[in-house]
Amino acid sequence: MGGKYYSIVCVINNNVVSAMNERHQERILVGKGIGFKAHKGDLVDAAKIDKEYFLKSKSIAGKLYALLAQTPESYMEIADKIVKKAQEELNKELDESVFLNLIDHMSFAVSRMEKGLEFKNTLLWEIVHFYPVEYKIAEYGLELLKEYTGCELPPDEAGSIAMHIVNAEFDQADRNDAVRMTELIHKIVSVVRYQFHTNFDENSVHFVRFITHLKFFASRFFSGKMLNGEGGALLEMVQKQYSEAYECARKIRSLIEQDYQTEIPEEEMIYLTVYIKRITTAEEE
Questions:
Q1: 67 pLDDT higher than 70
Q2: Which of 49, 92, 101, 275 has the smallest CB count inside 10 Å?
Q3: The CATH number of the domain where 271 resides is what?
């Protein structure tokens, strides 16, 4: 058989099917009535194809089929647009599991909203300030949801969507729980605030750099890949010249060791001290 064609592998619902193309590549096809009375092995009417999606992981694709069988196909389109915008804005590939997580979360959030059940995201402030790009993308997702479903979700839901995006930014082998990372960053920032009795200018470049360092620190911490070089003379210099910042870093180390039963190496203490010095000095200017 010549030319392009699709042969149905399985019917997910009346409007979504899994199909194999002429190059033996499996695709998810969406279109009104595309799966109605269709069977495995049938050729797809090309005129009915509105959207075509491809997932590399067969495991994730299988789970997605089951999810799409229970949710409107519009959620797949919304999730696809969110992922494409995220990959463009963040300039990185996201793990494919984000499709499952976004579709599942959005469908549940809309259902919850329709039942009048309110959701409060206790980490919303942290998410907005620690992951501003991801949060903006999530706000775009809420706009899409309103456009497609007519349901207007609160900012708390944008926070949850942002965290799904953050999680998907990690490689599978090094993925950490984004919520745990955010909580750790929150603890560190709180210690610095209390120690220096200051509120940070959250729009300043210094604050952004500080949070960026803490993101990488949290990622290394939870993946067990902390910088582990000897501090030596550099540590001694930092202790003397940045004594207040180092004292703050020591309190952070004590808190982390108490809460997570993990020691912080000298090299990490040096960098933490330097960044604390920078952010606190900048706030005094």
A1: yes
A2: 92
A3: 1.10.1790.10
* Domain contains 59: no
CA-to-CA separations, 280 to 169, 203, 248, in angstroms, rounded: 30, 15, 11
Q: Under the phi-then-psi rule, with left for phi > 0, alpha for psi from -120 to 50, and beta for the rest, what region is 116?
A: left
Residue 138 near residue 158 (C-beta atoms within 8 A): yes
Mean pLDDT (whole number) for 37-42: 89
Q: What is the 3-state secondary structure (H, E, C) of 224-239?
A: CCCCCCCCHHHHHHHH
Q: Give 120's DSSP letter.
A: -
Q: Is residue 168 part of a domain?
A: yes
Distance, CA of 5 to CA of 44 (rounded, Å): 7
> 30 near 15, Cβ under 8 Å?
yes
- In this structure, the answer to whether residues 29 and 89 fall within a common structural domain is no
* 53 within 8 A of 30, measured Cβ to Cβ: yes
User: Which of 144, 174, 204 lies at the terminal end of a domain, its last residue?
Assistant: 174
H-run or E-run covering 13: strand 6-13
Q: What percent of the chain clears pLDDT 90, i.e. is strictly above it?
A: 52
| Judgement on whether residues 275 and 187 belong to the same structural domain of the protein | yes
**145 is in which domain, residue-wise?**
74-174
Q: Is the pTM of this model over 0.85?
A: no
Are 185 and 280 contained in the same domain? yes
